[in-house]
UniProtKB/TrEMBL annotation:
This is Aspartate/ornithine carbamoyltransferase carbamoyl-P binding domain-containing protein. Keywords: Transferase. Gene3D superfamilies: Aspartate/ornithine carbamoyltransferase. GO terms for molecular function: amino acid binding; carboxyl- or carbamoyltransferase activity. The lineage of its organism: Bacteria, Pseudomonadati, Pseudomonadota, Betaproteobacteria, Burkholderiales.
């Protein structure tokens, strides 16, 4: 963990650099997890930005989208963001024949790196980063099994910073064992010295490798969950359901509607959610001041475009 030097908030109080120097040995930068980015990079890529996005650049390259799991927002978002920085997206179907089960996904990614300028990959299993580090184009992890989702964490951090993160408490809530978005965000917030509480159903706590001293509460008692939420400035809510637990709904302690929000949450509290929602976040919250998740969606493509430009050496 990085120890703040000037305030409890540490790194977030420090201005981000406007650009990065890149040597020839860094020509192919990859993003497999949030720890592949330095602190200055995290801050620059997620800096609050109120200006409209830049005009789309003329096409100069291609980007392969290899998604081994269904995706709506991430796949569409990367396609749109790629066009913004001059990359023509190419959707690649890695499923559909029984023989595909015998093909190593990492090998497919490696081959795509020779015919694309960037490869964005989503996998049902954790990626083997060591097998991909020598790919011939930048590789971006868009979610690998129950491991990490670093690009979503960048979007989440950008939304939190724009909404006002300094000296605030963030509660990560839901199935913390399996949801990769929570894993990456926990690592980022811990590095930046943010106060974090982990709230999950029993048996669904965050794996130890991501926790590292963070306060944890495992309960299915709505009253105890309300106590945690009442002291939170941000609530990052994910479903208790997952690919491996499709029937688990978490109970009332892990569902939020407008009535509960008004009864429990601070007036200035904001709720974030990576989507899709499966019943844990009621649509009644959408039109309320607690809604911070539409800000996440609005910022997403700008953050992805920044990341693509940075990894490809065409911007900060």
């Amino acid at each position: 963990m990085i120890t703040p030097t000037t305030s409890p908030f540490g790194l977030l109080s420090r201005p981000a650099p406007l650009g990065f120097e890149r040597s020839a040995s860094q020509r192919h930068r990859h993003l497999f997890g949030v720890d592949d980015l330095g602190d200055d990079e995290l801050l620059a890529l997620t800096r609050p930005c109120f200006s409209p996005p830049p005009a789309t650049r003329a096409p100069w390259g291609t980007m392969s989208l290899l998604f081994d799991q269904p995706s709506v927002r991430t796949a569409a978002g990367f396609a749109a963001s790629g066009l913004r920085v001059g990359l023509v997206p190419m959707g690649v179907n890695a499923r559909g024949h029984c023989a595909r089960a015998d093909v190593a996904l990492e090998d497919e990614v490696h081959q795509l790196s020779y015919i694309s300028d960037c490869v964005v990959v989503r996998s049902g299993e954790p990626l083997d980063a060591d097998a991909l580090r020598h790919c011939d184009a930048p590789v971006i992890n868009a979610g690998d099994g129950g491991h990490e989702h670093p690009t979503q964490a960048l979007i989440d951090l950008a939304a939190l910073r724009m909404l006002g993160l300094e000296d605030q408490r963030v509660t990560l809530m839901g199935n913390l064992r399996d949801h990769r978005t929570q894993h990456s965000l926990a690592r980022v917030l811990r590095r930046l010295g943010v106060s974090v509480v982990l709230l999950s159903p029993p048996g669904m706590g965050m794996p130890a490798r991501f926790v590292d001293g963070l306060a944890t509460v495992e309960t299915d008692d709505p009253a105890l969950a309300d106590e945690v939420l009442a002291s939170s400035d941000f609530i990052y809510l994910t479903p208790t359901r997952w690919w491996s637990t499709p029937e688990h709904h978490g109970g009332e302690a892990f569902k939020l509607d407008l009535e509960r929000a008004r009864r429990v949450l601070r007036p200035q509290a904001r709720v974030l959610h990576p989507f899709p929602r499966t019943g844990e976040l009621d649509v009644s919250v959408d039109a309320s001041p607690y809604n911070g998740y539409h800000r996440q969606l609005a910022l997403a493509n700008g953050v992805r475009a920044r990341l693509l430009a940075h990894l490809l050496g065409r911007g900060p």
